[in-house]
Amino acid sequence: MSRTARFDLGGRVAVVTGGGQGIGRAIAEALAEHGASVVVCGRSCATLEATVNVIREAGGTAQLLQMDVTSDEDVARARDWLLREFGGIDVLVNNAGINPHYGTIEKTSLEDWNQILAVNLTGVFRCCKLLGGLMLEKGAGSIINISSIAGHVGLKRQAPYGAAKGGVEQFTKSLAHDWAQHGVRVNAIAYGYVATDLTAGVLSHEHIGPRLLARIPMGRFARLEEVAGAAVFLAADASSYVTGHSLRVDGGWTAT
Ligand SMILES: NC(=O)c1ccc[n+]([C@@H]2O[C@H](COP(=O)([O-])OP(=O)(O)OC[C@H]3O[C@@H](n4cnc5c(N)ncnc54)[C@H](OP(=O)(O)O)[C@@H]3O)[C@@H](O)[C@H]2O)c1
């Protein structure tokens, strides 16, 4: 196998949840660029369509699939469709995530907590069980759970998000252990701050933005084009002996 073949995703089917925008879109584009046939999932068809069009215009292969990761029915329907259409999948990127609530716990409602856990943690469980289950049947595959530095360190006013991402980190390790014997690798990527819709309010805040920047050894937020390389690596044979790992793409935040 040549050196570049270790990063070749030709003939692989990759599913990216939350692939319509931000980090998910950057990952979907990069996987397609490396040859994967990509299925982008999310709730809003308009953004998914935009991702599919960009990939196709660049000569890649992509399809959209409307799917809410909090819905058993949607994910089960997606599973059946993927089985019919492709006979299974090779890569699953659990990227769909939200962080709608910044505040200390006394200002956090049970509703906020449940919503954040439902998408960021239970959504990952559901997609691994139903879509990752297709890999289990096949005896091969790579699951990439999108985590955050919030899963490694305590970020102020983000306890529910941190609990969800911390849960994703531990879930990743346990699942990696359970499925290692079945040929399915399970890893996480813990991003630092990346400029997307999710973080726009915080990063542009006149006090919080500079405080966060001062905390990052590299002295800047990640650019979108810098987030996808880790996903390509974990999806491809280049990482064939890597499982149960959390790859930190954080400009050095958690190294200090
Ligand atoms: N940006 C950062 O600095 C940063 C740092 C660390 C980790 N992360 C993680 O990276 C991931 C992507 O974040 P981002 O910054 O790219 O956020 P974003 O721009 O807000 O995109 C989030 C994506 O998730 C989808 N989504 C939300 N709820 C969903 C649901 N119930 N079912 C299916 N899809 C859903 C959204 O699509 P629809 O609304 O159309 O469904 C959207 O495509 C998240 O897991 C986030 O926690 C981000």
Description:
With 256 residues, this protein is of the alpha/beta class. It has a single domain (4-250), classed as 3-Layer(aba) Sandwich (Rossmann fold), CATH 3.40.50. It is built from 8 helices and 7 strands. The chain has helices at 22-33, 45-57, 72-86, 110-138, 159-179, 200-203, 208-215, 228-235, and strands spanning 13-17, 37-42, 61-66, 91-94, 141-148, 184-191, 246-249. The chain has a 7-stranded parallel β-sheet, sandwiched between helices. Strand 4, helix 4 (110-138) and strand 5 form a beta-alpha-beta unit. Helix 3 runs parallel beside helix 4 (110-138) and helix 4 (110-138) runs parallel beside helix 5. The chain is globular, with a radius of gyration of 17 Å. The termini are far apart. The model has no long low-confidence stretch (mean pLDDT 97). Bound molecules: NADP nicotinamide-adenine-dinucleotide phosphate. Residues 17-18, 20-24, 42-44, 47, 68-70, 95-99, 119, 146, 148, 191, 193-194, 196-199 line the site of NADP nicotinamide-adenine-dinucleotide phosphate.
> Runs with pLDDT <50, length 5+?
none
Based on the coordinates given, report the CATH architecture.
3-Layer(aba) Sandwich
Q: Determine and state the CATH class.
A: Alpha Beta
Shape: globular
Number of helices: 8
Strand content: 15-25%
What is the CATH topology assignment? Rossmann fold
In CATH, what is the homologous superfamily?
NAD(P)-binding Rossmann-like Domain
Number of domains: 1
**Which strand order spans the largest sheet, edge to edge or round the barrel?**
3-2-1-4-5-6-7
Overall mean pLDDT stands at 97
SSE order: EHEHEHEHEHEHHHE
Given helix and strand content, the structural type is alpha/beta
**In total, how many beta strands?**
7
Tell me the span between the first and last alpha carbons. 38 Å
| Integer-rounded radius of gyration | 17 Å
Largest sheet: 7 strands, parallel
